[in-house]
Design goal:
With about 350 residues, the chain is an alpha/beta fold. The protein has a single domain, classed as 4-Layer Sandwich (Purple Acid Phosphatase, chain A, domain 2), CATH 3.60.21.10. Helices cover about 25% and strands about 20% of the residues. The protein has a 7-stranded mixed sheet with strand order 1-5-6-7-8-10-9, covered by helices on one side. It is globular, with a radius of gyration of 19 Å.
């Protein structure tokens, strides 16, 4: 299946097609058998033969959140250095699963001093160079503030941090949760001033407060989002949205929501094409369903236990999405409303 994109594919030159899986059911050594066989959609090469049916996915993609690799000691449950080996095992599994693409939901690195963060980014990027399907990136709250926003985006191969791409029948929309941010933009910049004004205007107006580790969708990006959704409706495409930060309290702790989550929710819920909103940021994970949209907050890799992992594969079927979770990522089946 050929991907189309509004911008060049980001991600360290990952522009190659996925490798067809062999007849073996499991895709990573040591994974539980349930990953491959307990759910309705099997990870097998012959699933893609013939016309897609109810149990036959149109495509699959890999998904992971909050890798947060950094060359520094653990802090609480966060094993920063351990994410390097976990990411390598994730890549190995994805390479055996015939994926159309893979996406990381932000916070690929944690924060150190500028040169340290850039070294961490180079090292974790090197792990993903062996990934066969193209890798898409979402910008998170960690990394860009210490490495430098532009340098970070360039390392990820992103011309801009919000974009869309598609396959027949689906539109995938990537949002930048740091469009408004007190950390992502340098002091004195117009966007920093805009972010400070938003933060000050909304403090004390209800929960959650616009805390520094979150951020918001800026007006330019909101206008773009409305336009993309309108085009998806006209093209009779379903829409999957990816953003680092959740927008629904039932799928995340309220302290981890987008600053303007209510506004974004209203835009998404006004569009009948939107099927799912994937986020990270809250490492505990979560899931909820509201007004026709599934909200999935993926458990963070950095807090998965030693020897464990946290990533998944999403099988896109005609009538549902199936998230096949690995390690601490919860497997879920999400019915799609009629298109």
């Amino acid at each position: 299946m050929r991907l189309t994109a509004a911008i060049p594919r980001g991600g360290f030159g990952f522009h190659r097609r996925g490798l067809m899986l062999t007849r073996r059911a499991t895709v990573e050594r040591g994974l539980s058998a349930g990953f491959a066989s307990a759910l309705p959609v099997r990870v097998r090469a012959d699933d893609s033969a013939g016309a897609p049916g109810a149990d036959r996915p149109n495509l699959r993609f890999g998904i992971v959140a909050d890798v947060q690799y950094a060359d520094k000691p653990p802090s609480g449950r966060r094993d920063y250095r351990g994410s390097l080996a976990k990411a390598a095992r994730c890549v190995e599994a994805w390479n055996g699963a015939d994926l159309a693409f893979a996406i990381e939901l932000g916070d690929l690195t944690d924060d150190r001093a500028r040169d340290g963060t850039r070294e961490d980014l180079a090292r974790i990027c090197d792990v993903f160079t062996s990934l066969r399907p193209p890798l898409r990136h979402v910008v998170g709250n960690h990394g860009p503030p210490t490495a430098g926003r532009q340098a970070y985006l360039e390392a990820l191969g992103l011309e801009r941090p919000w974009y869309d791409f598609g396959v027949p029948g689906w539109r995938f929309v990537v949002l930048d949760a740091t469009g408004l941010s007190l950390k992502a933009w340098p002091a004195g910049s117009p966007r920093r001033a805009q972010s400070e004004a938003f933060s000050q205007a909304h403090r004390g107006c209800g929960t959650p407060e616009p805390v520094d580790h979150n951020g918001g969708i800026d007006p330019e990006q909101m206008a773009w989002l409305r336009g993309v959704l309108a085009k998806a409706v006209a093209a009779r495409e379903r829409v999957a949205v990816f953003c680092h930060t959740p927008v629904l309290a039932e799928a995340s702790r309220r302290s981890h929501l987008l600053w303007n989550h209510g506004e974004v929710l209203a835009v998404l819920e006004a569009c009948p094409a939107v099927a799912v909103y994937f986020a990270g940021h809250d490492h505990r994970g979560g899931c909820a369903f509201r007004n026709g949209i599934h909200h999935v907050t993926l458990e963070g890799m950095v807090e998965s236990p030693p020897g464990g992992n946290a990533f998944g594969i999403v099988a896109v079927c005609p009538d549902r999405l199936v998230l096949l979770g690995v390690g601490t990522v919860t497997s879920r089946t999400m019915a799609l409303r009629a298109g």
